[in-house]
Structures are given as structure tokens and as C-alpha cells.
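input
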Amino acid sequence: MNVLDCIIIGGGPSGLSASLTLGRARRNITLFDDGTNRNRVTQASHGFITRDGIKPQAFKEIALKELENYPSVSYFTATVTEIIKDIGNERFTVKTSTSQEFVSEKIILATGIQEIFTIPSIRKFYGKSLFSCPYCDGWEQKDKPLVVIAEKEEHVLHLTKLIYNWSQDLVVLTNGVQLSKEGKIELQKHNIKIISEKIKDLIGNDGYLQKIEFETGANNYKIGWICCPILLSPKSIC
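output
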């Protein structure tokens, strides 16, 4: 079995960039991508110079086309299921969902992070009309009335302070969590309304959020929506 210089796990921007750099260095590498990139739900990627507004899939296609120029780079659509380190020779054996095995001197984990939402229905709208990164999508939401969904006080205060530069018409939904007296005062100084009622459901069509229903029966309507997911490292594959 041929021993690779490096195996890269994850076909997002980081994994693709690492593949390009190592390919240009004439290293024998293999890139594994299972197609579950975090940005796959995004309509357009922003803030990347020369590619502002590009669709994530189009970005990936351009990157993979560029990698074809480097014969030492191989690309596989597969999930890495196990990584085994050989203590004797410091090499790694990688097993995949396609029942293949590869051996490499080095491993680069470019698997990114996972997003966890305590309100499951957020997934139906996330990336199309409900966003988590103001720097990615704030420009398109500028000067609109915005709802901020966040359940931890530190997230509420951080996110509202950040978003305030794009829009000063904000309402905070804490999904049943009560903010401290100090937290409420800080938001009230900027005329930011706080709704602490428990959220029942998010309502909309075709990925576009139209309203939020509360367990009390009340509704909230706004034009733009921002949420704060819980960010976790991906599950271990080692």
C-alpha cells in the first residue's frame, strides 16, 4: 500500500485550501469530503475577496477544478469512519464508508464545527431567511427590523451589540430565559425590546420565515431574523 504524505478530512474552504497548498508543494495527498459542509444551506457566501456573493457549491466546483492541475492530489466523496495511529511508525490508517483503507504520514482535520439548535424548526429556515453570522449576512439585513433569538445572556448582549451597527430596530427573544436586571438595563438603554416568552414554533414557507408563535398564543412578525446556535466540535472519528 502506498503511503500518502497527508490525508485531509473535510472538503470545505479550509480543506480545499490545504489541498491546493500541499498539491503545489508536490505532496501526495488525498482529500475526503462527505458533502455535509456547514455552509451548504447558505444561499451565498460573503466576505471572501474576489468571490463575494458566490454560491457555496459554485465555490467548491471552482476549487476542485483548480485542484485538477496538481496530479498528486486525489479527491474522494466518502465519510471517514475511523483513524488508527500506528505507534510504531507514527503513521495513520484511515478507514472510510466505502470500505477503503489509506495510510498517511500526516492528517489534517478540516471538519469544521456543528451547529445545535434548541428550537428544531430553525433548521427549516436557517441559511435562507434566518442567519447566525452578521458579518456573513448582515449587509443584506441592514436597516431592517430584526428579531434576535438567543437564550444565554452573554449571547444576547454580544449579538445585539454586534448587530446594532447594521440595524437599531431590534427585538430579542430569549425563549423562556429571564435576563438579569443588569442585562435588561443594558438593552433598554438602546431601546431594544425583550420578549421572554417560550417559543412554540417558527412559521413560514419554502425556507422563508414569516412569524414566530409563542406558547401563550401571541405572534411576532419582523422582516429579518438572527439566531445564535450552540457551536460544537464534530464527533470524534479517532
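quick obs: The domain at 4-112 is CATH 3.50.50.60 (FAD/NAD(P)-binding domain).
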